[in-house]
Amino acid sequence: MTKFALIPKSINDRYFDQVKKGCMDKAEEIGIECEYVGPTSYEDVAEKQNEIIYEMISSGEVDGIAIAVTNSSKNKEAIDKAVAANIPVVTFDSDSGDSKRSLYISTNNTRFGENLAKVLLQINPLGGKYGIISARGHPNLVERSNGIRVRLEDKYLKKKWTLLSESDSEHNTTISLKDMRKFVDLGATAIISCCGWPMYDKIEWKRFTREHSDITLVIGDANSVQLDLLSQGYNGGLVGQLPYRMGASAMEKLLEIKEGKSDGKEFLFTNILQHLQIPLNIASEPINPNFIGKLSILGYFLFSLVAALSVGLGFWVWVNRTHPIIKASQPEFLLGLCFGVLVMASSIIPLSIDDESYSEATASKGCISYWWLLCTGFTISFSMLFSKTWRINKIFLSSSRLERIIVLPQDVIVPFVTIMTANIIVLVCWNIIAPQKYIRQKHDGTDPWNQIISTYGTCATPGKFGSVPYVVLLAALNLCVLLTANFQAFRARHIKTIYSEGMYIMWTVGFALQALLIAGPVAAMSTTEPKLFYVVTALLIGLLCMVILCFIFIPKVSKKYKEDKEIRKVPQVGKK
Questions:
Q1: Could you report the per-residue pLDDT of 172-189, keeping only the tens digit for each?
Q2: Which residues contact 159 (CB under 8 A, 6 or more apart)?
Q3: Rounded CA gap, 529 and 229, in Å?
Q4: Is the whole-model pTM more than 0.85?
Q5: Which terminus of the chain has a smaller tally of CB atoms within 10 A, N or C?
């Protein structure tokens, strides 16, 4: 009969008792023999395991070996000699990766460690100081320790957990419990053990948990002793393996290798179990409301800057309305532009309102007024630019045909009134049929206890399609204005006018089109992230307003300053 040997780290370990049962049950099932043999204690384990392997090589009585590696480098030589003697070897629980073993069967120990840390975060997400109980001479436990540290040092946790120390308890229950008391003296608020041996002394374990009930305890493995203690309330959480499955898989895989049916894989990982004592009062972090907060300072600054420039430049136009430069550009056009920019920039104010400092009713009014101010301001501003370039094109086109044409104010005002009326109709219908309301919604995702972790405030429109029909109509209307203004500016690009006004208008509407095409989709996709939406939208509105004012007015102010300076240099008649 085919005979395979299973060599644990110790035959007097509750964990490996389950491996043995899996081995024996599977051997009976598939008609082979499982010989369970190993060290009786955790002293000189690797050397004793090697002696057993050498005896098996000499006797030639086994057809394969499964070993729980204690020391990767020490066990390597014995494993390689067994393979050289045509005895296939698989490792389980812990590995000797540099050896000639065929397969490693185990829990993914790094992930096991990460899950120990995850359970700690689930039971106590508030943070603190923690210690790790481990055994540095065992490669699987080293991997678990690394997994714990990696998870708790994750940058997204913002260093909530601080590692005090890591013990080397050598699979000893007494030493591990002493190390746990040392961690308490150092100020630990949590202790994670990579393995289950601290719980094997039931009396001392119960005494420790009673004396330090404020310490969060997360322990590796989940054997019957540990589960009994957990059910009695003497633990916070267990992360367990499937040792029974490891023993059974070791027999299956060795038989496949012997019969030449191996799939050639080097690793076979088993699942991880998790057992939790759910706290009566679940500790959780405050829900993140994602308020705009101090970012509103950016919005108010942009509005103040644009408002000061709009009012200042409007006043400058009015004072200098008889100057040739202003007359050539039409004062009513420039004043209308200043007013439109001011109204558009004003939309940043209701955009800055959320339910952190205001009621939902006030925030709902902000939702409505935002669209009114943005659309009317945009329409006024870009209708003025469109009308100006349309007027230039019409005049110069007629002159090229030797035709006499008079462009009256009402000819220029018609496009503006048409677009403005269309915007007002859409906005009025929106406010009457399905007025927007400010509501708070939850983000996708919850904490490990299925509690909400994040919400956001947004302007919502009732109905199946929400605000989509109205936003699409408003966007289409105003995009038509912008595209038409770009078309008219493109047609006028070669027309030489006084002060090159057509060129500056072309730059303005061209920048506006590019900015909307880039920032518009970003804003549309960030409606569930209020801070990002606010920054993108406020910057877009502020930059549009600044570009309009700077491109249109700075050349005129500069030209007027230079002309006035030249005039002052000319000597006046009658004065010496």
A1: 888 999 999 999 999 999
A2: 153
A3: 45
A4: no
A5: C
